[in-house]
Amino acid sequence: MKEKNILSSAPADPYGEEGLSLLREAVREYMTEKRYLHTLGVERKAAELAARHAPEKTAKLRAAALLHDITKERSAEEQIALCARFSVPVPRDCLESPKLFHSLTASLLIPEAFPLYADPEILTAVARHTAGHPEMTLCDKILYLADWIEDTRTFPTCVKLRAWYDRRICAADTGEKREAVLEKTVLRSFDVMIREILKEKRALALITVETRNALLRECAERKNKRKIPTHGSEK
Ligand SMILES: [Fe+2]
Ligand SMILES: [Fe+2]
User: Which residue from 11, 52, 61, 107 lies 20 to 30 Å from 93 (Cα-Cα)?
Assistant: First the structure.
């Protein structure tokens, strides 16, 4: 059965304050109060990070943040049914780690339930916000990190990562250094996540390993570029 489009009215500008406020109310129906508070926290953090790292993407990232967990409350059976409805094969990684399902199914559901926000950058950032992707864009990284370090998160690993980012970003006095801090923080979050998955003896998605390796390369290339500016990066 199709999900109805539940924005109560069509805002003149979906990314203006009125549009985002209607979206904020609409996503509330998709989650518990606890997750809704987390979602609002991700919106605030995504706006803060976007203002610093990609100001022109701020409104789009606020919308992506509001939509990122709309299917998180659904059971594995419901996730599988959503994949079937959109004719998407059920990924083996999701069967082995059902937590991964919701980023995929949210990105499938947005065009149907929230067509005003079926923007490729939003869909990609939402789809990549759990396991990552080896070619993460700046928008993907911002949503991913906002989800990790938003202010209502109290897990010790999240609190530590937030402090790690905050300390370094305060000391970064150029755009280049700020981008390096963002990249290193995202890499660090993958290191922490992979360690936790191994400790808990859970299945580790291949894409998570590939993302971590790609981030490691990006960080190394950035460092090399700074050291030998005339030679460029090795490829
Ligand atoms: Fe999520
Ligand atoms: Fe989340």
Answer: 61
